[in-house]
User: What shape does this take?
Amino acid sequence: MKLPFNLRNFDGPLTRELVREPGKFGLGQVPSKVAPDATTTMVCGFCSTGCGLKIHLKDGQAVNLSAETDYPVNLGMACPKGWEALTPLAAPDRATTPLLRNEKTGELEPVDWERAMVLFCERFKEIKAKHGAESVAFLSTGQIVTEELAFLGALFKFGMGFVHCDSNTRQCMATSHVAYKQSFGFDAPPFTYADFEESDVLVFVGANPCIAHPIMWQRVMRNPHRPEIIVVDPRKTETAMAATQHYALTPKSDLTLLYGIANILIASGWIDRDFIAAHTNGFAEFAEFVTRFTPDHVAAETGIVVADLWRLTETIAQGKRVSFWWTMGVNQSHEATRTAQAIINLALITGNIGRPGTGANSITGQCNAMGSRIFANVTSLLGGHDFQNADHRAKVARVLGIPDERITSQPSLAYDQIVQGIEDGAIKGLWLIATNSSHSWIHQDRFNELLKKLDFLVVQEMYTTTESAQRADLVLPAAGWGEKEGTLINSERRIGLVKKVSRAPGQALADFHIFQLIAHYWGLGTMFTRWSSPEAAFQLMKEISRGQPCEISGIADYAHIDAAGGIQWPWSEVNAECKNPPAEWRERRLFEDGKFFTADGKAKMLFDMPRAVAEPTDAEFPFVLMTGRGSSAQWHTGSRTDKSDVLRKLAPANCYVEINPADAKRLGIGPGDEVSIRSRRAFITATAFVTSTVRAGQVFVPMHYRAVNRLTHAAFDPHSRQPSYKYCAVSVGPA
Amino acid sequence: MSDPELRTLVDALLEEQRTLTAVERFARAHERHEFPTQQKHYRDLIPLNAPQSGEQYAFAVNLDTCTGCKACVSACHSLNGLEDGELWREVGLLHGGTARAPFQQTITTACHHCADPACANGCPVLAYEKEAATGIVRHLDDQCIGCQYCVLKCPYDVPKYSEKLGIVRKCDMCHSRLADGEAPACVQACPNEAIRIEVVKSEAVASEGRMLPGVFESSYTRPTTTYKTSRDMPAAVRDGAEKLRLEHAHWPLIFMLVLTQAAAGAYGAASALGGVLPVTFATALLHGGLAVSILHLGRPLGAWRFFLGLRKSWMSREILAFGMFAGCGTAFAAVVWLGWKMERPLAIATLVLAAAGVACSAMIYVDTRRAAWSGRRTFLKFFGTAIVLGLHAYAMFAAMPQWLVIAVAVQWIFAGIETRYHLCALSDDDHPAHRSALITKRLLGAVEDARTIAMLLGAACAACAFITPSRWPAAVAFGFAAIAAIAERYAFFAGACAPRMPGGTAR
Assistant: This one.
């Protein structure tokens, strides 16, 4: 007998909500409600790992994504940000029209593109006429595609005729850029991710890849050689937990430690004399220099006992394929460049470079930090060229079809100097592109106060709600990753493709289109007609790269990059002409021939005496404040990751501070208590996370929370001018 | 006026922006793939064969390679089409150790597909199915009535209630994927192969100890997930989510419990006093309580199936007991209204069913095994509320001030017993309800104050009762006693720390 109702419902509309079906396209099962009718692979737009994401498309529109199995970078895996990459595109606070601040009400009000463009040009031209070409600057990003960065740099300097511009890569990669350029003759990270799998010793200095670069850590976990994993970090991070050796050094004593290691290596004869003689300069001076870093001295400075220092050094000495990796713990320091070069020197003296599983390897931060370094036309002329070099200027002018004199040799101010320029009244107009300086710049209150001095602030952004957009006079609504085409360059120099898989909301335009509009409204006539599409711009970049270490002239077009699963530079016509490229060309490293990009082909050993930190602790501010990445679910200032409910649930909602149990007890702070953190610049509150993973006398606050950079002290590395986010003095107490 | 040529450029670029090009230009590469390409990564992470009789699937986590990237969480979300913010897998943190050897360990966790699932045992409508062939604990979304009892029952905080859908959902171990030889989403997505699926013998599933330090005893539900580590986990390891927080208050349940217990007491008063007014009052309280309970259900239309769970679920039993209580109590009232002679047997039957109903209510919470909801405490609270409000009702209808004094005194005695228990739990770090006592002290101070004030005002009413001969002081005192009971019941829910898997940092 069939009842007119079921006693138990095994099926029904709610059950069908979650039904899965075979997804085809090599996907396995997918939720039926978002089953794709096509798929395509593109590179992720968060970090520099540069993972391939398989976009699930329905009627041309992205409906879901998964990690691409066959992409040589990530091998079928992605971190939570990658999995959630499409979600931020649908956020309700997307900028959908240009917004202009109403001078009477002080509110941002919608205007059309026409008015926005006319005003943009009028105001900046006015400022230029009144205060000169050095009075307007831009601060851009490592988050947009290379074609857009190149267009922006060319437009601003050669077209609009301004001088000063910089990028938020100053906050992450400037140090690596300068260190490599000085040591190797070109900004050339030598590694490929396969090196993670090939090493028998991996040394991570100031890097927490488990959290910051989980997919690179995946490659470490795939290493079949049971490697020794050494982590040098003041905190017992997730990576330190997973390591075989962890050295919790005193914050910012890394340079001393590295020189101490070099001293032991050299004194013990654990070095590769043949390699040093054939491929380096400056060894004798370096060897003499490091003798003053005796084990006892190093132990006293770093807090690492002599026996541990020997164990660390011996592990390096005994490794046959030792790779050295660093990130922001090194780059964001008051003596960052020399620290990075101290790591480079260790690789050079032990001959650990140019072979599988070796290298002095800087892990990049942003998805296109390298695109920005090479092609943004900011500190280097397009394509890693030199503004000072007349031949270089002539070459670029020829490729772009512009008069030579449009390219001047005048160097640009760095980020911090532009900020200083605002204070001094020299900079009157500022244009922020895809960066959120009002949150991320060091000593934030000063920066935000200075913005008020500007005559005109333009913010080109995806969202109206970022701290920077909220302060703008004019907001230009930008399309985001996935809403436009272009290429990104990852940490291992791999050029990957971004595709247009989602419609930008309202009148938002790709940055590339915005630059096309500006070129037009600025009245530059035919000067930028060659920049007709991102792919046309890519062809210009290819030409410009010819003869450079970063040559990409052998890449045919976007379809070629797509088919190849990304292509690492260099890829010249020589590579392209090879009929059957060997499989290992898919993952290539540099310097296998021992030739560096310096004039004599030898790497340089550079060093300096360690300097005291800019703001040491004292009785009033007895704690060292360190900042850094808090979770794998948060990206920088959160302007995108905070838009995903999933990602928000994967990280604490409120700012928190890691504090050692002994300090907490002494100060009467319990787990979860509100605490106050005070520096000479500001006072903030945060939730206490009482943990022994941070040492007594130190506290750590993740950089993703707005308040953090109110505390940080604006000190800079003299060579790279990168801000030192990892050290300032604070006091801590119950709120 | 704007130049038409300039407008054209804006329009042309906007049009170009709206044209999606990826399919046309690039989307041919994957068309030939028939089989899941990801298979090569997870082939060794799932069993070759399906479970045999007496076996089931289980998650096995290698903590040595779980480094907290949380890819498993988002992959599960994306590959299962979950609601915004709905998570079936989570990653928490254990930390501790010493200054010399600091320790932290991230913990990935989802449903443990228990051998003796508490969620299924508590469900009044059998909306859980422990699959015979696989051992996977499936939630039947269309059977669920949204009572959320499973949320209270699960000691690992697995079932999640969706306000929007009105039901609970949870991890199904990607049963359809496993059936097709594919790995669950989390297994597919872990960069470090930390999660795998194993076949375990059902009888070999641990029935003692704990999966991890600090999580609930396995004896309750026999969770099948295993956590393996080669590291020495310090004994005093702590949960990353240490910050005290309030639990869900469940307002409809607060009112339902207070009203039905008040009704039980009021029927007692009505039995003793006779007359139309007291029994009418008691009946109104009861029906009010039952009506408000419906507000607690996400999908009340399926609630008629409550009898399905009678074998195991105290929720089913409560519904049955209250149904009978309501029938009998209403008949009792009707007999009184009509002046029929059957008053006495109906009164006795009503009181017996009332006691059964209140006892079932208490058992619902006792059966969750939350420390704060121990049997002694819960029965004391629930029957205490019935007695105190019953005495207040008696005093009100009898209009005898001395009875109001007795009612107020009994209320203070019950409160005193409870305070003693609270202080005991608060002062003893090892007391099972210590954390709940801390929550009550630190986060529910205002609620406790409100209760005390209501009780003091009730006492003041008792004093007034000696001055005026009317029943109004007693009626007002009944109101204050009810407010005090509601405050107490709010603290009962919000202050009962739920057992969970390790949570995230400083959440």
